[in-house]
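2024-03-11 09:14:02 DEBUG pipeline.ingest accepted 1 chain
2024-03-11 09:14:02 DEBUG pipeline.ingest length=456
2024-03-11 09:14:03 DEBUG pipeline.predict start
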Amino acid sequence: MTDSFVYLIAGLCLLLAVVLPQALRSLAVSAPMVLVGIGLLIGLLPLSGEFALDPIEDEKVILHVTELTVLVALMGVGLALDRPLRPRERRTWGHWSPTWRLLVVAMPLTIGGIALLGWGVAGLAPAAAILLGAALAPTDPVLASDVQVGGPMLAEDLEELEEGLADEDSDTGARLDEVRFALTSEAGLNDGLAFPFVYLAILVAAGGFGLADSAEWLGWYLVGKIAIGVAVGVGAGWLLGKIAFRSSRPSLRLAEQGEPLLALAALLASYGAAELAGGYGFLAVFTCAMAMRASERKHDYHRSMHEVIERLERLLTLAVLLFLGIATTRGLLSDLTWTGALVGVAVIFVIRPLAGLVSLSVRLRRKDLPGGLDVGDRLAVAFFGVRGVGSLYYLAYAAGEAEFEDLPWLWSTVAFTIVLSVLVHGITAKPALDRVDRRRGAQGPGLAESRRTEER
């Protein structure tokens, strides 16, 4: 009986994964909202205990499932970004201006704001407060798909985009989808950049944090491991791109064969190599995808790889959200207090929006240039900092590395914040971004970069 119930639920869930994206396209309801809701209902069924995961007892399962889900999402995000980043060309750094602002300014402000709230209002120990900030600060690459760009564009559209980016005297900036690009690129990079602060929480929890520990954290965890992760990712992406597109042996030119599983091989290889080298694997996967994309930007092979990654991401997201919903009904929120609920509400409605606005409003780039944001764009980017699967991963990872006080409270608070984010951002994403699109469309036909979003 129990096994039959498991197969029935699994089959219905797979059917949902296929049907939901199309069925909800015209509605102001996101697939994550529906999946979490279904999980909540399943959790009420008598046999749902088969699916219920305890964050303390099943820590390793949660760790590895969320880890793989984030990795797949990061590979998809890296392949989906059409706007090039060429380090030797100063102009392209400006095209990514919102991304750098969100990473360098908004993210530390968000971590600090959440940690202070956890420490001052919820009474958390410093280590637990820092971990709470690090876990809830990143914009999630998994659940933020409704506010991100779609898959790689066609070759002719990409050529139009690059011609527009090369001529900054044109009206290209006014016609680009800066909101979705900013949120997508931020989600791709900030999951890896949250790790230094997760390690900071682990180091503080392990004992005294003196001057030597500070130097180690700054030099190794904040700089060294980031540099290694980026270097491994770029190197792996360059090598795999060279083999797939320009190998002297036809059997190795996978792009000509259209074999999309190279994306999975690249994901696993870059992550494993970066972790073995001591770097941040999340950054390595994202930069590997970007380097592969840069090796032959206009080839349709990238679309094939992205389609495989997108389908795998959809299935993994389905599983995570259903388990989250089931666990929520089965007691995951049992340790939630009013202070935890306050933290979650503050993250969604106050801390992230204010930090985002501050980062995007200092020394503004002209809104008619690529990378420039008008007032409406800044408000949208600041608000849609979706919290999700990455937060669960960071909490599970830190819990396995050190002893944290109030760990059940942390799990309840993080879960509550994710569910609240799914609900709030799921309801508001479509109408808000439709308004952004209409405002941009009033300035003239948009470039292909903005038209791809209909594919989701």
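2024-03-11 09:14:41 DEBUG pipeline.report The chain has one domain: 2-455.
2024-03-11 09:14:41 DEBUG pipeline.predict end
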